[in-house]
C-alpha cells in the first residue's frame, strides 16, 4: 500500500495550471498545520520528562506549546503559487500577499496580481480552528497531562477521551463551511513539474 500522495498532473505546455481535485481525500494533501503536532509529539516526552515534570520541564513544555501554537496559527496565513515555472511562498497581509522568496525582484510585465490574496474572515476561521485542534491534541497527551495536571482523576480522563472527537467533528464542519483557497507552504501539487 502506497502511503505517499499521488504525483500532481503535469501542466500543459501552454502554461495552464493543473486543475485541483475536489475529492475530500485530496482536499488538503499536506495539512499546513501538521508540522507543529508532529514536532510536538516528537519532543513532548523528553520535554515533560515522560509526564513527571519538574519546574524546568514545565517551562520547557510551556515554551514548546507556545512555539508550536504560534506556528500552527500563522501557517494558516501562508500561500503558495507558481509563476513562470517557479514556486513562490508568501504570507497573506491586509494589502495582499507578502512573498518570501524574491517575487518583487522579477519586475517587468505579466506579474501576478497579489492584491487578491488579502486576509479575510476565512483565514481567521481556519487559523483559530487549527489552533484549537492543535491545543486539544497537545493537552490530550498523557505526558502533558501528567506534567500540568498531576493525577487528574476520572473526569479529566473522560474529557480527554471525548474532547478530541468533538473538536474534530466541529473543525471538519467549519473547514467544510468555510473552505479556503490558500495553498500553504509544503503542498506537493504546487511543485513545478519538469516538461
From TrEMBL:
<feature type="transmembrane region" description="Helical">
    <location>
        <begin position="59"/>
        <end position="77"/>
    </location>
</feature>
<protein>
    <submittedName>
        <fullName>Uncharacterized protein</fullName>
    </submittedName>
</protein>
<dbReference type="InterPro" id="IPR007770">
    <property type="entry name" value="DMP"/>
</dbReference>
<comment type="similarity">
    <text>Belongs to the plant DMP1 protein family.</text>
</comment>
<keyword id="KW-0812">Transmembrane</keyword>
<feature type="region of interest" description="Disordered">
    <location>
        <begin position="1"/>
        <end position="33"/>
    </location>
</feature>
<feature type="transmembrane region" description="Helical">
    <location>
        <begin position="159"/>
        <end position="178"/>
    </location>
</feature>
<dbReference type="GO" id="GO:0016020">
    <property type="term" value="C:membrane"/>
</dbReference>
<keyword id="KW-0472">Membrane</keyword>
<feature type="compositionally biased region" description="Polar residues">
    <location>
        <begin position="18"/>
        <end position="33"/>
    </location>
</feature>
<dbReference type="GO" id="GO:0005737">
    <property type="term" value="C:cytoplasm"/>
</dbReference>
<dbReference type="GO" id="GO:0010256">
    <property type="term" value="P:endomembrane system organization"/>
</dbReference>
<dbReference type="Pfam" id="PF05078">
    <property type="entry name" value="DUF679"/>
</dbReference>
<feature type="transmembrane region" description="Helical">
    <location>
        <begin position="119"/>
        <end position="139"/>
    </location>
</feature>
<keyword id="KW-1133">Transmembrane helix</keyword>
<feature type="compositionally biased region" description="Pro residues">
    <location>
        <begin position="1"/>
        <end position="12"/>
    </location>
</feature>
